[in-house]
Amino acid sequence: MSAKVLTITSGKGGVGKTTATANIGAALAKTGQRVACIDADIGLRNLDVVMGLENRIVYDLVDAVEGRCRLNQAMIKDKHIPDLYLIPSAQTRDKTAVSPSDMIRICDELRKDLDWIIVDSPAGIERGFKNAIAPADEVIVITNPEVSAVRDADRIIGIVEAEEKGSPRLLINRLNPEMVKQNNMLSSDDVVDLLAIHLLGIIPEDIGVLISTNKGTPIALDDKSLAGQAYRNIAQRILGENVPLLDLDKGSGFFNRISSVFGSGEK
Amino acid sequence: MENFINRIFSKEPSSADQAKDRLRLVLINDRTDLSSDALESLKDDLLDVLSRYIKIDPKSMRIDITQEGRQQRLIADIPIAGPVSRKY
Predict the structure, then answer these.
(1) Which of A171, B2, B25, B62 has a beta carbon 3.0–4.6 Å from A142's, enabling a disulfide?
(2) Domain-located, residue B88
(3) Residue A5 pairs with which residues in a beta bridge?
């Protein structure tokens, strides 16, 4: 069994690549898969804090690439789930410290002992992004239902296809069902229509995501959270299961329930 | 209901529809590297060439780029008004 490399990228910054990496990694590991998440954003380390592992870093990706440590010494074991690991990026180096062929070599070395390697790509279309997609067996493009994020996602999809990585799959993050209903947000159908790639999942906007990030615990581990459920479903789909999309119209949020009690007039 | 009434009576399309329409045009420009100005001059050049062979009413000619999946297509609908009167 050899691990598959999934790269999560977006073009635009701040749409949720790192959160998605941490949560898809956690959700896959929760099903018993062996997973390593790699932070490929050299110089702007952040997957460690999102996963809550910032205090355990001894060696990082650049140390492993430059031979200052063995690769398994740069693998930090997760504190919540067995068989989940983080390879952190370097904070004090720049993106040229790692090359695309370094990334391919590192991932090939990891493949034999794992089921999934998830690479968190930096924003942009430069060296860091090239590093992140070089080892990818599959690319996942994440976007928000918002004009600038969708435009950048389209550009990224074009580049990924030109690199012959196949057609990426799409994640739509921070969708607000109430705003979609009011016709003030692009719907998932609109985004899929524009980008014309396969939809892997939709993560609803959920204040719980920020709260769980504050604590360094992935929301995918919270059985009561809708966003957590969305991430667990995405993991199932990555594993090849046929899981239907969440029904986001139920109005699961506290606000929706309040406004329906008081009848705010919107239907 | 409020939204429904607004949509029927207001001249302005919903912000989601505006976003989608704007993105549709931007993505076509990005993917083809063809601005709307460039598309206009393409139309003019095409008209010049075609007019050497057939008579065309420029007002009835329609040239657009449409999206089919991730494939862009240049669609031209050019009614022929008649043969060109040849000058000998």
Answers:
(1) A171
(2) no
(3) A117
DSSP string, A51-84: HT-GGG-SS-HHHHHTTSS-GGGG-EEPSSSTTE
ipTM value of the model? 0.84
A267 within a domain of the structure (yes/no): no
Q: Is residue A87 part of a domain?
A: yes
**Number of structural domains found in chain B:** 1
Tally of structural domains, chain A = 1
A–B interface: beta-carbon pairs under 8 A: 56
Quickly state the pLDDT bin for A184 (edges 50, 70, 90). very high
Q: Is residue A147 part of a domain?
A: yes
Phi-psi region of A240 (alpha: psi -120 to 50; beta: other; left: phi over 0): left
Cα gap A143→A127, rounded to integer Å:
21
Give the distance from residue B84's alpha carbon to the nearest chain A alpha carbon, in angstroms. 42
A34-87 pLDDT tens trace: 999 999 999 999 999 999 999 999 999 999 999 999 999 999 999 999 999 999
Host domain of residue B17: 2-83
Domain containing residue A134: 4-262
List of chain A residues whose C-beta atoms are within 8 Å of the C-beta of residue B16: 180, 183-187, 190
